[in-house]
């Protein structure tokens, strides 16, 4: 699969994710991917069981309770794609990536 980078060049998905850390989604959960950092944003897709995500940046949003606690932190996993950090095993209670924006 390929994507267009900020310079308009096409690169492989693996190259686009280079330099970003991948984290597993909580086992046994199919997690909603939303169009923004909150439950008020539309669901764009659902991650399958056993998925991992690449966190590009993080930002505050709606507070969510999940298997990894209660947090208002949301992980951007792609352009306009966000998941609640409460469902991602980052090993930390705070930011593990730069802030979005």
Task: Report on the architecture of this protein.
This protein is mainly beta and 101 residues long. Helix content is 4%, strand content 43%. The protein has one helix and nine strands; from the N terminus they run E-E-H-E-E-E-E-E-E-E. The two termini are 26 Å apart. Mean pLDDT is 86; it is low at 1-16.
Write the layout of secondary structure elements.
Elements: E1 2-4, E2 10-12, H1 13-16, E3 22-24, E4 32-34, E5 43-46, E6 52-54, E7 57-66, E8 69-78, E9 81-84
Antiparallel strand pairs: 1-2, 3-6, 4-5, 7-8, 8-9
What is the spatial order of strands in the main beta sheet?
Answer: 7-8-9
At the fold tier of CATH, the topology name is SH3 type barrels
The number of strands is 9
Largest sheet: 3 strands, antiparallel
Q: In the residues, how many domains can be counted?
A: 1
Helical residues, percent: under 10%
- What value does the average pLDDT take? 86
Q: Approximately what portion of the residues adopt beta-strand conformation?
A: 35-45%
> What structural class do the secondary elements suggest?
mainly beta
CATH architecture: Roll
What is the CATH first-level class name? Mainly Beta
Q: Number of helical runs?
A: 1
Shape: globular
Rg for CA atoms: 13 Å
Low-confidence stretches: 1-16
Helix-strand pattern, N to C?
Answer: EEHEEEEEEE
Oligomer description: single chain
For the termini, the CA-CA separation is 26 Å
């Amino acid at each position: 699969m390929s994507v267009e980078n900020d310079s308009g060049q096409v690169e492989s998905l693996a190259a686009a994710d280079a330099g970003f850390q991948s984290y597993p989604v909580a086992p046994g959960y199919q997690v909603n991917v939303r169009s923004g950092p909150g439950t008020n944003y539309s669901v764009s897709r659902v991650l399958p069981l056993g998925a991992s995500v690449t966190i590009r940046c993080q930002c505050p949003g709606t507070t969510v309770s999940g298997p990894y606690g209660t947090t208002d932190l949301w992980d951007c996993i792609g352009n306009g794609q966000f998941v609640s950090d409460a469902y991602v095993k980052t090993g930390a209670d705070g930011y593990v990536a730069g802030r979005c924006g």
